[in-house]
Amino acid sequence: MKKAIYPGSFDPITKGHLDIIRRGSKSFDKVIVAVLINSEKQGLFSIEERVSLIRKATFGIDNVEIISFEGLLVDYMEKNHISIILKGLRNSKDFEYELQMANVNKILGNEIETIFMISNPENSYISSSMVKEVCKLGGNISGLVPSEVESIIKKKIMG
Ligand code: COA
After folding, report:
1. Which secondary-structure segment (H or E) carries 150?
2. Is 2 annotated as a binding residue?
3. Fewer beta carbons below 10 Å: N end or C end of the chain?
4. Where is this site: Transition state stabilizer (predicted)?
């Protein structure tokens, strides 16, 4: 069974993430979406909220599992016999950042491969920070986040 883990902070999930999950679910037998803490970022949504939003947005995609844990990604992967990391690439800035992470994970782990999917052009400008900023300023986020979770995201950000 070909399993891939798709890690990120997902604060919150966007249409771009959902596109990678959908496409990944067609290329792998199972996609495990891992909600992790990036210690460099201050989060808005709690981990439980992020997991719940992803669960709602991916409803109906049978081979997707959503998890969260603390600690190193490669440790979780080794314990659970997963060797593939799936990531989306939007632009050359992502590439620089992802190249570093992929190489560190390769050094830390054993036989870890990172596989990249190029984001669809319409998603290449979306990020979780962009969603939070647009929403906070009263903009329309319907083109940026999955429709199933738009109102929950708005409520959290706008109060
Ligand atoms: N579509 C839309 N947006 C996307 C995207 C896509 N396909 N891919 C990435 N993004 C955005 C995210 O929304 C995020 O935006 P933000 O900065 O506004 O929040 C940004 O790109 C970066 O996302 P991502 O690549 O998921 O990185 P991250 O910083 O959210 O998460 C971890 C990084 C959590 C995966 C990484 O720190 C990790 O693995 N931590 C676990 C501990 C560990 O093992 N550390 C060593 C790692 S080398």
Report:
1. helix 150-158
2. no
3. C
4. 17
